Amino acid sequence: MKMKTKALVAAVSLAAAVQANAAINADNASFPGTGTGAGELFLSVIDRGGSAPESYTLDLGITASAFRANPNSFLGTTFAADGNLNSLLTNNDGGTIHWNIAAANNADPSNGTDFLNYGYLTTSLSNLTPANTPQGFTYIGAALQKLGSYVYNVNQAAGNSNVALNNSTLVNGGDAAFYDGPNWGNNWDGASHGSEAALAESMSMFFVGLDPADDTGATSRVDTFSGLWSLASNGSLTFASAAAPVPLPPAVWLLGSALVGLVGVGRRRNTAGMAA
User: The dihedral of CA 133, 135, 138, 140: what is its sign?
Assistant: First the structure.
């Protein structure tokens, strides 16, 4: 599958600054189609309420390509709250805390084989489909640019130039790396679905990418992964299997049958009494 060179060059403006050797690897997302799939998952948390809103970002150190290749290998992964996240949770003065996770997978789609590897990972409480996500190279590229700009600002705030260091940042509402700035937020990818949840809520993860059946790059597909990300009230982040329904033990079914039988006996006695 070949994507027309004109579409690749003209689809998205390359105005955003590029980040290199930063704390979070954004897979060169400011320049769509120039990465390798090495973008890292990162957690963002925001406290919107009160007099001093803050946001927090953590590099999870898991590449988009590794997660997509085998998400089940990350089941049971847990990240304990660090000092920055504990500070945000402790300083919360009444606002609702929300969070999301994302990563860029910015491989070049022009060579055909990487139609499958051009897009981004995002969490959502809603089920994602092509109908409620960005369509094609143009709009996926716009979302990647926003992700790249946000990560660039986060990495500047972190003051760290080593992708191997999985560190975190904590900023206030006036900082360029603030969660609710122009490049991030609940609807950061420009679509109608939300990407965030409250504390103690769980979200699925999705990959929004190009449709390999459309060699024009104009349409998209959505891949859904098993497992749920959860951020507990103590700041502990986990990726775990969705809880299976707990089967009722046989004794419960027997008890239910017995109760139904007693109701039937009672009704018969009432009917007999009225007849007498």
Answer: positive
CA atoms 173, 174, 180, 183: torsion sign: negative
What pLDDT is stored for residue 208 in this prediction? 96
Write b or e for each residue in 32-50: b if 16 or more Cβ atoms lie within 10 A of its Cβ, otherwise e.
Answer: bbebbbbbbbbbbbbbeee
**Among 30, 40, 17, 43, which Cα is nearest to 168's?**
43
User: Across the strands, what pairs with 223?
Assistant: 207
Residue type for position 27: D
From the list 197, 36, 28, 209, the residue with the least C-alpha distance to 125 is 197
22-31 pLDDT, tens digit each: 489 999 888 8
81-84-87 Cα angle (round to 5): 95
In tens, the pLDDT along 94-121 reads 778 999 999 999 887 765 556 788 999 9
* Integer CA distances (angstroms), 157 to 56, 118, 146, 211, 256, in order: 11, 27, 17, 36, 61
Which uninterrupted H or E stretch holds 40? strand 40-47
**Alpha-carbon torsion (25, 31, 33, 34), positive or negative:** negative
Residues with Cβ within 8 Å of residue 261, at least 6 apart in sequence: none
Q: Write out the two tokens for 184.
A: 């991030």
